[in-house]
Amino acid sequence: MKCNSKKNQYYTEDEAVEALIRSYIRFNKPATSYYLCSECTCFHLTSHGPKHPLLSRPEVIDRIHKEQQTQDWSQHLGRK
Ligand SMILES: [Zn+2]
Predict the structure, then answer these.
(1) This prediction's pTM
(2) Which of 13, 38, 55, 70 has fewest C-beta within 10 Å?
């Protein structure tokens, strides 16, 4: 189903969670949460509102840090 928000659609909550975490790894201004859209009945990411409690979980923070370090390294290598 099409949706006026023009945002990426995630069909399951798991997908939305994964996308939210990736957004945190990649972007300086990441999405903070996700929500169930009443229009398309899919999940979308949003950068408005409070940070999703999931992002305060130690194992998630740990993963974000590790993957950010990996990204830094590959960026350094890419520059040479
Ligand atoms: Zn929608």
Answers:
(1) 0.85
(2) 38
